[in-house]
Amino acid sequence: MKFPKTYKLKTIAEMLGCSYVGASDFPVLGMNEIHVVEAGDIVFVDHPKYYDKALQSNATIILINKEVECPEGKALLISDNPFRDFNKLANFFRPFVPSQSNISSTAEIDASTIIQPNVFIGNYVKIGKNCIIHSNVSIYDHTEIGDNVVIHAGTVIGADAFYYQKRPDYFDPLVSCGHVVIEDGVTLGALSTIDRGVTGATTIGRGTKIDNQVHVGHDTVIGKMCLIAAQTGIAGCVVIEDEAVLWGQVGVTSGITIKEKAVVLAQTGVTKSLEGNKKYFGTPVQEAREYLKQIAKLKKQEK
User: Fold this and answer.
1) pLDDT tens for residues 80-128?
2) pTM of the entire structure?
3) Is 2-93 in CATH node 3.40.50.880?
4) Which residues pair with 157 in a beta bridge?
5) 64 and 85 Cβ atoms separated by less than 8 Å
6) For 14-43, how does the pLDDT look when each residue is reduced to its tens digit (9 = 90+)?
7) Cβ atoms 83, 89 nearer than 8 A
8) Do the first three CATH levels of 2-93 and 108-291 match, i.e. the same topology?
9) In terms of DSSP bridges, do strands 2-8 and 61-64 run parallel, antiparallel, or are they unpaired?
10) Catalytic residue among 142, 152, 215, 218
11) What is 108-291's CATH number?
12) 218 is an active site residue
């Protein structure tokens, strides 16, 4: 998430009540998670296991719980609780704003788009031309929807990321301040759920078709012309490249890539990244042909 203007490092430190390492006027442009950070962004890290990854990332401001050697060209924000302070920034720069009507006055909706009864459209949503939004759809704040998109009844776009830190007696949520981008020609089936990014965008690419009761986790990027069948669950931070196909009840773990034109057969558990132009099946996932050979061998042994 980019801030509305450039802030100074000292200003951000004062906002959080923490110390800093670096020039007081070091520029701060935004905040993001580790997998989408850019120069000028803040990234948080609160475990020694991940210090190096954060310090060597594209982020130039590291919100960290220990004063360490600062890489050249970067700055540190020293906090006793980076997770808490990252949430402070999220709430400050993108606070929750209650809606005053079913369709927010700040939403931008092309006149050619059809909105069926009982649809909720939140603040600063943008919807393009010739879309059809069916009844009981909920579209949360800052969602961007292109042209010729169809969203079927009961679908929810932009709910919070499933991202928690365990405390002794409760789970502490990381505040979601990202959004969802639905590109042109996408169809979303009934009762599907597309979570927003933690700080960036969950994206559904042009022409992709998603069946009923599909879940897409935070910050996942689905490419162009993909097919995703019913009851598939996709975790956060997944990349699904163009023209991939996921059949029914596929489960996809977080942080992996399914490459272009891969086909994943029904009820497969995808536990690792997959090469493109191949067909996959099973749990743990493997090439479908190899899996079927193994099954054939087992049947022969039984005889």
Assistant:
1) 999 999 999 999 999 999 999 999 999 999 999 999 999 999 999 999 9
2) 0.93
3) no
4) 139, 194
5) no
6) 999 999 999 999 999 999 999 889 999 999
7) no
8) no
9) unpaired
10) 218
11) 2.160.10.10
12) yes
